[in-house]
Amino acid sequence: MGAKQASEDGDRRIGRRALLVGGTAAAVGSAVLARDELARLWWRAPGVEKPRVEGAVDFRGAQWVAASDANWRRADRPDDYDVDMVIIHVTQGSFDSAVKVFRDPGHGAAAHYIVRKDGHITQMIRELDVAYHAGNRAYNERSVGIEHEGFVDRPEDFTDAMYEASARLTARICARYGIPVDREHIIGHVEVPGTDHTDPGEHWDWDRYMGLVRRARSAPAQV
Hints:
This protein is of the alpha/beta class. Helix content is 32%, strand content 11%. It has 8 helices and 8 strands. The protein starts with 5 loop residues before the first helix and ends in a 5-residue tail after the last helix.
């Protein structure tokens, strides 16, 4: 599960860098720079928000349960940040406990999705927004995080239904953003630089999972 990092990655206010964008662009004489900065920062300006449809999900069949807005950052991906990675997590607890902490503004972390043992998928953060799940700001900005109910030392928690549902989800994410289906772009939380987490652990069957993702990726789109 994602480490706390609200103080590092949670400031959604318009900052000094944003206020100085116009001057910086003028100083370097670059209209391209100005356009790029404005594309990244316009949604932070007071009174300006990217349109949202309440309760909308990015994966058909998922249930929407909103995470606390203290645990993610509003964005407009992939326009402002390329999405080129899926990060696999294990909750180290029950599904209900994961939902509870992701809704807690004091937790400071949350993933986009949680997959339950029976294959049910709950989405808590839109894919276009940056979830605080990886413990690494750059990886948060470029990835979609998927939690899986269970414990890393209990292989029985990783059920057939969970593997299959998660693989379909990951396949659709990869299709949506053109992410290669390989272990350089679909990684575990343990593989994120600077993390102290071990999930998904040695009992997560990567060969099986990647095979399921490839099979789902090549199947006709259903979402």
